[in-house]
Amino acid sequence: MSTDSQLKELALHDISVRFGGLTALDNVSLRVAPGRIVGVIGPNGAGKTTLFNVICGFVQPTSGSLTLDGRPWRPRPHHLSRLGIARTLQGVGQFAGMTVLENVMVGARHRHAESEALAALERCGVDRYASAYPGALPYAIRKRIELARALVAKPRILMLDEPAGGLDADEIAWLGALIKATGTTVLLVEHHMDLVMSVCDEILVLDFGKPIALGSPEEISADPKVTEAYLGAAA
Amino acid sequence: MTTIESRPETATKAPPGAKRRRRVHPVIVIALGAVLVVALTYVLPPFRNYQLATVGAYFCVTAGLTVLTGLNGQLSLGHGALMATGAYTLALAQNRWESLPLSFALAVLVTTGVGAVIGLAAARLRGPYLAGLTLAVAIVVPSVTSTFDETFNSDQGLSVFLEPPPEQYPMEQWQAWLCWAAALVVVLLLALLVRGRFGRDLRAVRDDETAAKLAGINIARTQVLAFVVSAACAGVAGALFAYLAQSVSPGAFPLTLSLFLLMAIVIGGLGSLFGALWGALLLVVLPALSQSVGEQTGSQRLEGNLALIVFGVVLVVVMLAAPGGLASIPSRISRLIRRNR
């Protein structure tokens, strides 16, 4: 493997997605280096989740390409886990008919599924709910279970889609610490600015599908285009 | 829904690393079942042994169907047709080669193949469309037998040539042994299959396809596999029915059979192999019961339709009293006791 490909574990090259007349993503490029925490932010409808869906293979880009470790890559959802990519879902996609432990075990792709799953639940502080059913649990707990299911696969790239949604300040602080401690590459879609600014090495800002800024948290918070996109030109 | 039943407060009280339910290994349950069945065959009169054999045959198909519908969420109205496939294959093979093990193997093999074809189509369909496809399969059986009447002999069906059992055993006892040997092997294989990763994958696909995909599960392959496994079980059951009746005809596999099978696993408890056993029992007991009631009233019209009514009433009553089916009653009772303590 060349050093170039190591520097770009995952890369998007001029990705565009059009749904009929709507342009959800417009020439978005992003290079994600190993171990980096990359945030994707933008107002509602900016195309953040669509970007995730392209990387996961749920949405085929209209144009553009992806590379993984420098090689051209066409993602398929059920191959991600094998490639070491785990993703959480925005609306906590859990298996209602299975216990919390079983839910996490589904994410474990190796032999000691049960002990690994328990360890993941413990890491997320929700191991006491192992034998409960997720539907009866509070939203914040289910978010943690979702996170445990992603972590149990021991991914090298962790994709988090609004993990802080519905969490209180303490829980967000806990989440930030956990994200920093994973040591893996993290792609983070999040509305909660404090979290994004505190954990991310790099931030991509989208507005109506267009990349309007890319840089460190300091650069992003000083960028007038970003303020404009969030507050509107007239504001 | 299980979500309503489970109570979070009991979960929150549990200490970290809370004790999890220890399950008895399926091999032990099956071995106990085998002992019980063999003992039963020595005390039951011949006709009851024949009924016991029929329960065993039904158990094969209900177990397979409950894995497909209960655990994987695929609704099949065509399992009666899959049973017919197994039955006709057994009849044709047996009349040609006169070797029961070979005929059984062929019956299972052919049904599995047919199941794979239906399963491939089924994996692309959801909900009512899947039900429609399998319904069509169930309806097509009589037409197939009459279209290819040289092979299947139309409505008359085929008789099955069988060697008599060893002299020291009565026919019915022998039948009960064979049917239950098959049933217990089928159920043991299913139990071993669904308790591990495959079982988790089945349920994950049923509950949330997107999340299942992200966990690395190939949805289509899991669904086709579930259908194939379930079809193989239906094939065993069909072959056993041909063996028990020593004949096959389209009349033995009507659409109502498929509906009865589905009702039976719902009453028994969807997704539970014990529930499948309850269902199989009801499939034999309820029609027999309604037939004797019908005979007493002397009305022929009632006699033919009473079973369906009885099944419907039982379904409604069980769903009201125990929405999880008969198999969920023990855990409901134990939960009730714990709550009142």
Automatic annotation (TrEMBL), chain A:
<dbReference type="InterPro" id="IPR051120">
    <property type="entry name" value="ABC_AA/LPS_Transport"/>
</dbReference>
<keyword id="KW-0813">Transport</keyword>
<feature type="domain" description="ABC transporter">
    <location>
        <begin position="10"/>
        <end position="233"/>
    </location>
</feature>
<keyword id="KW-0067">ATP-binding</keyword>
<dbReference type="GO" id="GO:0016887">
    <property type="term" value="F:ATP hydrolysis activity"/>
</dbReference>
<dbReference type="Pfam" id="PF00005">
    <property type="entry name" value="ABC_tran"/>
</dbReference>
<dbReference type="Pfam" id="PF12399">
    <property type="entry name" value="BCA_ABC_TP_C"/>
</dbReference>
<protein>
    <submittedName>
        <fullName>Branched-chain amino acid transport system ATP-binding protein</fullName>
    </submittedName>
</protein>
<dbReference type="GO" id="GO:0005524">
    <property type="term" value="F:ATP binding"/>
</dbReference>
<dbReference type="InterPro" id="IPR003439">
    <property type="entry name" value="ABC_transporter-like_ATP-bd"/>
</dbReference>
<dbReference type="InterPro" id="IPR003593">
    <property type="entry name" value="AAA+_ATPase"/>
</dbReference>
<keyword id="KW-0547">Nucleotide-binding</keyword>
<dbReference type="GO" id="GO:0005886">
    <property type="term" value="C:plasma membrane"/>
</dbReference>
<dbReference type="InterPro" id="IPR032823">
    <property type="entry name" value="BCA_ABC_TP_C"/>
</dbReference>
<dbReference type="InterPro" id="IPR027417">
    <property type="entry name" value="P-loop_NTPase"/>
</dbReference>
Automatic annotation (TrEMBL), chain B:
<dbReference type="InterPro" id="IPR037294">
    <property type="entry name" value="ABC_BtuC-like"/>
</dbReference>
<feature type="transmembrane region" description="Helical">
    <location>
        <begin position="50"/>
        <end position="68"/>
    </location>
</feature>
<feature type="transmembrane region" description="Helical">
    <location>
        <begin position="306"/>
        <end position="329"/>
    </location>
</feature>
<feature type="transmembrane region" description="Helical">
    <location>
        <begin position="100"/>
        <end position="122"/>
    </location>
</feature>
<feature type="transmembrane region" description="Helical">
    <location>
        <begin position="129"/>
        <end position="148"/>
    </location>
</feature>
<feature type="transmembrane region" description="Helical">
    <location>
        <begin position="24"/>
        <end position="44"/>
    </location>
</feature>
<keyword id="KW-0472">Membrane</keyword>
<protein>
    <submittedName>
        <fullName>Branched-chain amino acid transport system permease protein</fullName>
    </submittedName>
</protein>
<dbReference type="InterPro" id="IPR001851">
    <property type="entry name" value="ABC_transp_permease"/>
</dbReference>
<dbReference type="GO" id="GO:0015658">
    <property type="term" value="F:branched-chain amino acid transmembrane transporter activity"/>
</dbReference>
<feature type="transmembrane region" description="Helical">
    <location>
        <begin position="75"/>
        <end position="94"/>
    </location>
</feature>
<feature type="transmembrane region" description="Helical">
    <location>
        <begin position="224"/>
        <end position="245"/>
    </location>
</feature>
<keyword id="KW-1003">Cell membrane</keyword>
<dbReference type="InterPro" id="IPR043428">
    <property type="entry name" value="LivM-like"/>
</dbReference>
<keyword id="KW-0812">Transmembrane</keyword>
<feature type="transmembrane region" description="Helical">
    <location>
        <begin position="174"/>
        <end position="194"/>
    </location>
</feature>
<keyword id="KW-1133">Transmembrane helix</keyword>
<dbReference type="Pfam" id="PF02653">
    <property type="entry name" value="BPD_transp_2"/>
</dbReference>
<dbReference type="GO" id="GO:0005886">
    <property type="term" value="C:plasma membrane"/>
</dbReference>
